[in-house]
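My hope is that you will study the protein record below before we discuss the fold together.
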Amino acid sequence: MQVEIAFLTTVFISASAQSIKQSVLEGNDLFVFCDGERSPGGSVYWENSNLQYHYDGPILNITKITRDKSQYYECFDIDHSKNSTKQIFAAYVDVIYPAKILSHSYQDTLKENETFSAKLTVEGNPKPEIRLTQKSNGAVAFHSNELGTFNATFKVKCSSMDTYLLTCSNLLNYDEIYLNLTVLCIPRPDPGQTIIYTQTPRVGEFLKMEMFATGYPAPTFVWTHSGAPVQHVDDGYTSTVDVQGVKVEDFGNYSLTMSNSAGENTVVYFIEADGPPDSATDLQVGDITLNSATLSWQPGFDYDNIQTFTVQSSGQEIDTVTLKDHSLNRVNYTLNNLQQSSTYSMDVKSSNSKGNAAAPSNTVTFTTGSPTPPPTSPPTTDLPTTDPPTTHPPTTHPPTPPPTPGPSRAPKTRASKLLVACLLLLITFT
């Protein structure tokens, strides 16, 4: 961008002035008048400080001046009557010209922590201001007022990968070019994102682990848990692990390794088992006797805190059972000293050092046995008493004479015998 500035090219010097600084734009003509106090009949001439310029007369005139003419110029008076010479005036001529970037070279791909270096050649008068500005955030990576050839340097970080604007400017011009810088950076968590590394879910809950990475090139992700690979979904710089229902074996450390051509980085997530235990389940009862019964139940997860089970009957504590380890094996426990012929409704409540389970187990109802009555004898049947038969001596009768033949009689019938019996009975009750 060219800046047009008008400069006065003709300068009148008063006699009282001793010296001046005169700026003139390169390519313009310079006129400086030396009308100082001169001796009568004397003569005037101009010379520069290194004696490479001499001009007779009171006018310092340089046409189409170039930057190499930026020097001190002195005006001398010759007094011929005294054969003497003296300086009566001086002017410093400053040839100004636009700022410009003449050349640049740099390495456009670096690793983090290396040094960026751009070799620049610039010109300009007044001295130009050199700036190297990161385009995305306006941060100034380099600033100088140097001339000629020099190096613009700064130490690169992962966040340094960007497009940079290199400017060279003064009052006469503003020159600019764009530089692209690629930084090879080891993958790492993005400091601008919220990443949760420790979670304390409950068994059965949904769990999500996320990584928002930065670095270049884009990384590959490898998740492991207890030495085994873990399924994950990747999208560019994001990797996600979803656990639909947390199980006991899902607790513990998860290792995530992110890698690219610049190197690799490993971070650790921790799924912590912490809090009150889960409720006991599947409470059953068996081996019921007169005064004892055996309860059996499945413990819930204890979240790495030894748990105690309180056996309750209708809400009243009956007994407690404390496990010795974190086993999830089924628990069997025998209750003694129960009342005979009694009905009990029992459940089991779990607790640990972090608190009580959200709810007790299911309830079982049972009745203890009743005592068996002593055995009874079978009923006795009385038989009738039979008197021994009386023995009578046989009676001897004379032999019956044989029947005398006579008129024949009809034999008695059964009906006639019955009729006789009825008549006798009737006579008896009369």
User: Anything to note?
Assistant: Residues 2-17, 388-413 have pLDDT under 50 and may be disordered.
